[in-house]
Amino acid sequence: MREFATFEERLSDWTTDAMKSVFGLEGSEVHLGVSPTNNDKFGDYQCNAAMVLSKQLKKAPRQIAQEFVDAAVLPDFVEKIDIAGPGFINFFLSDSALAEHVQLLENDPRLGVKQEGQGKTVIIDYSSPNVAKSMHIGHIRSTVIGNAIDRLYRFLGYHVIADNHLGDWGTQFGLMLVGYREFVNEEALAQAPVEELERIYVASYNKSKEDDSWRDLAKAELVKLQQGDAENRALWEKFIELSIGEFNTIYDRLGVKFDLYRGESFYNDRLPEIIGQLEAKGLAAESEGALIVDLEEDKMPICIVRKSDGGYNYATTDLATVESRIEEFDPERIIYVTDERQQLHFKQFFKISEKLGMEANLVHVWFGLMRLPEATFSTREGNVIKLAALLDEAESRALEMVKSSSPDMPPEQQKDLATAIGIGAIKYTDLSQNPQSLVTFTWEKALNMQGNSAPYLQYAYARISSVYDKFHAQYPDIDLSECSINVEHEIERKLAIKLSRFPAAVSAAAENYSPNILAEYLYDLAQVYSSFYQNVPFLKAEEGVRESRIRLCRSTAATLKQGLDLLGIETRERI
Ligand code: ARG
Predict the structure, then answer these.
(1) Is the shortest distance between the CB of 128 and ligand 1 below 6 Å?
(2) What is the 3-state secondary structure (H, E, C) of 492-504?
(3) DSSP letter at 74?
(4) Is the CB of 165 under 6 A from ligand 1?
(5) pLDDT tens per residue across span 324-367
(6) Where is this motif: 'HIGH' region (predicted)?
(7) Whose CA is nearest to atom 12 of ligand 1?
(8) How far apart are CA 381 and CA 137, in angstroms?
(9) What pLDDT does 135 receive?
(10) Strands (DSSP E) along 173-236, which ranges?
(11) What is the Å distance from ligand 1's center to 266 Cα?
């Protein structure tokens, strides 16, 4: 497939070369970037090269800019350049080059997004809930944000391995084993397995507080499990299977798929050997019976890698996991998505893995917890929001909306649409804000048809598609791909510029692990489109102009659809 450069890339290459030749810098290493402007006054792109080179050239930025503007021979896709402020150089693209570029994008199924990750493997460790426990809000956000990052990297051509690092090991299984034998209600277990497993755990835990012999029994059963006792292992596997089964029904509803479900237990056999490595490198020390890694010189608290009872810790498992992932997959990067409370844990084991010489690029993408104002959820119980109930509520609220906006739609279709809108609304609320900022969830915002929300974008997409359908019905013989795009009207130009920036938005969202960059782009695009739609005639425009506008329209629809898909949000043609 033919890949083409964005204006950003073409302009920065050109500026770099032209600066070098105007100022005789041929041998130097500089690469000068340009960035998109938000104000037409400053052209379409802007560059701060004059500031960057000021020191080297011993001249004031404004003078450099002036000399550059006077001397440079413009490439054919640039109409003019001028200077702003202290020495910014503004670039104005030529209308014909812009039109031609957007036409190329529109003909490309990838909308101009390059496969920049080809040949590289990225492991994304996300969702990763704990067996026999309900997913909390942190796991939900990890699932939604992690999945968007997963989709972005896949689209950029990376070989992505989505790995669900389940918490399936630990001392709690001793209490689970004895608790199950004593307290299980098989009927409840069949109906809502995770809830029942959680209830069993709590009952067993409470009993252990009052009854020492119960605690000893739990310990003994845990040791048996660790030693491979067949009966305990079978029961433990049952807990895992039941939990994964329930998690999967949620993942299905969210359109999330994992390549691997490797829980912590998968790495058990490696743990003693990790300790061995730490000892051999002189990194581990005994402290009150436990084995610790002192991270004082790295300005972090000590990290316990083996407890005084001989059990291993979370960090030890994560170190073994890194080692195993490197051996098996040779990833270019491993991305972990969890809530902010785990920052120290990740910093510590990243540092220790570096000290152990594990060569991997490890990235922790953390997010703040979402604020759920009281009374937001009728499904709230204590601090745990039952995710399934939350999704149910989103769908039923969306169904009410659909019923009133499309009363004539067949009920089946209304339901299908409500699913797309309800799930989309939940995801978009999460994805449209910087992951690290505090998100306050309200139904009004999530389902606001007029504001920055999934339904707003989904409706925009459907309306745009219907314009194209109308055109097709009226002019069935016109092949749009044969018609050219022109950008004569100011608003056409604005839309074309916006469309041409899709690849940059996708790359920036992936590079910064910030799906909100893409969400923001899509919202802007929908708004520019809406003023395009309000300001110029489409179907009633004269021949030629009409086809050009319909192509811009089709291109906007394709970009919205692709962009929303990268956020894991579904679209429908008919709303
Ligand atoms: N199971 C952990 C939790 O619920 C999250 C695991 C994240 N991944 C990792 N490799 N540590 O908090």
Answers:
(1) yes
(2) HHHHHHHHHCHHH
(3) P
(4) yes
(5) 999 999 999 999 999 999 999 999 999 999 999 999 999 999 99
(6) 129-139
(7) 129
(8) 13
(9) 85
(10) none
(11) 14
Please choose from 128, 141, 363 the residue to mutate so as to test ligand 1's pocket, defined by most ligand atoms within 8 A of CB: 128
Give the number of C-alpha atoms closer than 13 A to the C-alpha of residue 188, restricted to the C-beta side: 11
Using pLDDT thresholds of 50, 70 and 90, give the confidence band for residue 477. Answer: very high
pLDDT at 1: 41
Cα of 128 from ligand 1 centre, angstroms = 5
pLDDT in tens, 406-445: 999 999 999 999 999 999 999 999 999 998 888 888 999 9
Ligand 1 centroid – CA 388 distance (Å): 21
Question: Does ligand 1 have an atom closer than 6 angstroms to the CB of 127?
Answer: no
Ordered by where they begin, the domains of the chain are: 7-93 (3.30.1360.70), 121-162+261-370 (3.40.50.620), 172-254 (no CATH), 380-566 (1.10.730.10)
Assembly ipTM: 0.99
* 383 alpha carbon – ligand 1 mean position (Å): 19
Look at residue 115 and give its three-state secondary structure. coil
How far is it, in rounded angstroms, from Cα 508 to Cα 516?
A: 10
CB atoms within 10 A of CB 150: 25
Take atom 3 of ligand 1 and give the residue whose Cα is closest.
129
Kindly tell me if the per-residue pLDDT of 310 is higher than 70.
yes
**Mean pLDDT (whole number) for 190-200:** 94
